[in-house]
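Try this one yourself first.
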């Protein structure tokens, strides 16, 4: 079964990369991603979530994020175990993923294939963060298509829901800076913010700001007394962020400029153009996530959101006629490179988490 799952997955990833807009391949990839999310079974995180669920449903430990606690208690009240709850939430995540992908590109199969390579294979075991990131992706998709206060409200609602499932998602509030339409002004604000933040590292201001948000004190204490990133890790993170930025630069290279305000109606085709116009700014603002990396090396996972939108931008460029071959190659190379980074440089235990999908979870667990 393990060999079958590997061959099947590779086959449809490759097909998705070549038949970029195939509805059939898109459907199969959505099923594969759902199986990946719903049946992840690595000993580390999975066993931890089982213990959390048991603690919460028995009322012994309610120190986790409030929405996560509530969902576990609700599941317990209806006689569901953690696996049942995860299958339901994973279905919502996949529907959410498809909706945003479909909304911004016609090349859905290509984007889902890239997303499967990275970060899905690593984030599948991060149950709480995965839900938080999916909600934040939905929220940012509303913000990118900003036309009214309703879009801002939907963005804030989605990010808040995600953050109440995993605290780190509060940091996605930085994307409110996308409301600044002047690119030069935006880049100046991001640069000044980075310089000031570096100067204030170690002063405790970062945690004082976190206390203004609805975050449990125990969660803040965990990060405040945790192991901070070392200088080598921070330098590597900066280099990686530049590589991520180049995804947007290549996706928008030679792209004709268009005035967002002159678009009379926001439809699917125009959503793609709006993303192409906003993608560089999205990447510039994402540099602020480097601040959190000083306090927790696990914050590197937060950039997975912008990588996902970069995949969409590159996929769009494969159809819009801008550097088609270059965009296609850079998208695939980036997905593989980021996977290798996380497996062999950034994380500890990530190789096991990755291989466990094909030895313990995924189709192995599905047919047990």
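Now uncover the answer:
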């Amino acid at each position: 079964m393990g060999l079958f799952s590997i061959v099947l997955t590779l086959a449809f990833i490759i097909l998705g990369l070549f038949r970029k807009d195939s509805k059939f391949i898109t459907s199969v990839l959505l099923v594969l991603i759902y199986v990946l999310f719903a049946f992840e079974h690595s000993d580390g995180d999975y066993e931890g979530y089982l213990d959390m669920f048991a603690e919460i449903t028995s009322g012994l430990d309610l120190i986790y994020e409030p929405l996560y606690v509530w969902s576990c208690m609700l599941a317990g009240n209806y006689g569901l175990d953690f696996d049942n709850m995860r299958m339901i939430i994973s279905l919502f995540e996949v529907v959410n993923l498809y909706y945003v992908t479909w909304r911004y590109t016609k090349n859905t199969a290509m984007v889902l294939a890239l997303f499967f390579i990275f970060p899905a294979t690593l984030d599948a075991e991060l149950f709480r963060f995965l839900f938080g990131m999916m909600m934040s992706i939905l929220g940012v998709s509303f913000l990118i298509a900003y036309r009214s206060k309703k879009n801002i409200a939907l963005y804030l609602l989605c990010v808040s829901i995600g953050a109440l499932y995993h605290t780190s998602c509060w940091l996605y509030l930085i994307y409110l800076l996308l409301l600044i339409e002047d690119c030069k002004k935006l880049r100046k604000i991001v640069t000044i913010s980075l310089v000031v933040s570096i100067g204030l590292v170690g002063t405790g201001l970062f945690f004082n700001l976190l206390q203004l948000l609805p975050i449990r004190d125990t969660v803040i204490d965990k990060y405040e007394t945790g192991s901070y990133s070392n200088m080598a890790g921070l330098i590597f993170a900066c280099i990686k962020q530049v590589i991520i930025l180049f995804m947007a630069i290549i996706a928008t290279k030679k792209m004709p400029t268009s005035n967002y305000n002159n678009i009379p109606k926001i439809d699917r085709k125009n959503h793609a153009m709006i993303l192409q116009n906003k993608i560089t700014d999205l990447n510039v603002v994402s540099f602020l996530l480097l601040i959190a990396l000083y306090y927790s090396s696990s914050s590197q996972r937060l950039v997975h959101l912008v990588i996902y939108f970069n995949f969409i931008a590159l996929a769009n460029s494969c159809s819009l006629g801008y550097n088609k071959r270059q965009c296609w190659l850079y998208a695939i190379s980036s997905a593989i490179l980021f996977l290798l980074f996380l497996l062999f440089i950034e994380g500890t235990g990530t190789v096991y988490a990755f291989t466990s999908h094909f030895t313990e979870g995924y189709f192995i667990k599905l047919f047990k």
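Discussion: The CA atoms of residues 58 and 223 lie 26 Å apart. The chain has a mean pLDDT of 87.
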